[in-house]
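Running this now, will post back.
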Amino acid sequence: MGYRVAVVGATGNVGREMLNILEEVEFPVDKIHAIASRKSIGVQVSFGSETVACEDIAQFDFSTVDLVLMSVSGSFSKEWSPKIGAAGPIVIDNSSAFRMDPDVPLIVPEVNPDDVSYAHKKNIIANPNCSTAQLVVALKPLHERAKIKRVVVSTYQSVSGAGKEGMDELWDQTKGVFVLGAPPPKKFPKQIAFNVIPFIGAFNDDGYTDEEAKMWNETHKMIDPAIKLTVTCVRVPVMVGHAEAVNIEFHNPLDEDEARDLLRDSPGLVVIDKRDETGYMTPKEAQGEFPVFVSRIRNDPTVEHGLNMWVVADNLRKGAALNAIQIAQLLDERGLIKTKAIA
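Update: finished.
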C-alpha cells in the first residue's frame, strides 16, 4: 500500500530533487501532489514518467495526504508547517524553522533514528542544515568509539546551497569574466566567480554567522551537547557539493587505521582514501551520489588523540532532499505514517 505525498516548494532545486529521489528509491507513493505558491500554479514538474502540475498551497486540503515534504524558507515553514501538521500528515521540513524546537525531532537516520518516536508531538520532523548533515554522519561512529572532545571545521560550500539564484549568479559571472567583465553580485555579497567568500548567512553578535551556529547547535542536539565545535563557513565557486576539512580531538585513543576501518563499516559512509594524487573525493565526483564520502584520514600529532579528515557530499541530496526521503523511509519502516481512508 502506498502513500499520498505532497511536496511543498516543488519548483525549487531541493523540491525537484525530492521528486527525483522519491522515484529513484521507489518510495511507495500512490498519489503525488506538487505544491507551490500562487505564482507557480500550473508550472509542471516531473515525477518519474509523470508530469505533475503545481497546485496552490492556499487552496490545497492537506487532510487528504499522509506525508508532506517541505522545501521552503524558514518564515514560510513557520506559517504553514504547524497548520499542515494539525491537519494530520507528518511534515518533514527542510528549513531551519523547527530544528531547535525541543518538541520537534531533528533527524539524520544514520545518526539518531530513534528520535522519530516523538514526531507525533507536532507532526513535524526537521531536516538539518546541509553542512551539518554530512558532518554528523561522519562524526557519529567516531564519537561512539572514542568520545569526541573538540571539532574544528572549515566548510567549502557550493552555490547551490543558496538556491537557483546562487547557481545562476556563478554561471553569469563566470561567463562575464571572459567577455565584458563579471556582472555585479546580487545573491552573494561579493563576486563568487574565481573567488571564495568566508561568509554565509548573517552575522551574530559574537562574530560567527548563523550558518556556523547551526552546525554546532544541530550537532549538539543530534549527537552530544558536550562536544566543543567551532566552524568557519566558506562559499566556493562550485555548483553542487559541499566539502569540509574536519579536525577532531578525542578523549580516548583512536588512530587513523582504526578510524578508517570504523568509517568503512558505518552506514551512509564511503571511504575513498588512497595516498596518491587522485585518491580522495571532490564535490564534483560526489554530485548525484547518495553517500557521504570521507578522505584524507590522518593522525593529528599536535594533540594527544587527534585526527584530520575530508568530508564531501552532494548538498542537494544528503544535505537536503535525500535525507528527507530517508526520514520518510524510516517512518515507513516503523509504521509511523498514518494513512487515511480514500473518500
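The mean pLDDT is 96. More later if anyone needs it.
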